[in-house]
């Protein structure tokens, strides 16, 4: 079985421009994929059952986004096949790298082909949105400028640097950060050209570093080598470099109590490349 990639993403910036009546936030952000992530393996079976063979600590199978995605897609296939799914996990939970959403998107894209559902990318994105606001970006498969609650996507092509990514040993609750009274919710909207020229920050960062010292420490440490940023609501932080070796030199100096990796920024998702190879 050939692996299906579930790549990580980075939020290159994150502004909140207002709060909606339904409690959600209007935001502006830019997503870029990494050539690093989880790997999913799908083997169709004749039992008709969906079986996730990899155990996720603390997450019952029926609550896993992979199982939820497969279950939502099952009514659209005319085959009687089920699927056995296994996962090689590399992305931390609660790190802001989109691991769960990426897993769900990869499941929808892969099973749409393996089960011969024939659904359009737009329909898959619609199904994915019910699982999480970030799922459609992974299905769309191109670096994107996002507005609304994150579902209004415009393809962009920022530079594709090498990133050093640090994963502090903590799990940041997205719900906690977005409900914080300290969070800035009145950013002036900016434009794509302004972002591409260097504007933009992550407004969640100030809240996270106040409540999660591990993230604050990681940002301070990484600042020795390059301007650091936090992705999403954290906990992972990153900095970009011109070469793989420059990024690797930083990761090689990483304190032993942190995890980290080097990855290339990708404007086309590795998942999209894998799906195109199936045609």
TrEMBL record:
Belongs to the GHMP kinase family. IspE subfamily. Catalyzes the phosphorylation of the position 2 hydroxy group of 4-diphosphocytidyl-2C-methyl-D-erythritol. This is 4-diphosphocytidyl-2-C-methyl-D-erythritol kinase. The gene is ipk. It catalyses: 4-CDP-2-C-methyl-D-erythritol + ATP = 4-CDP-2-C-methyl-D-erythritol 2-phosphate + ADP + H(+). Keywords: ATP-binding, Isoprene biosynthesis, Kinase, Nucleotide-binding, Transferase. HAMAP family: IspE. NCBIfam families: ispE. Its EC number is 2.7.1.148.
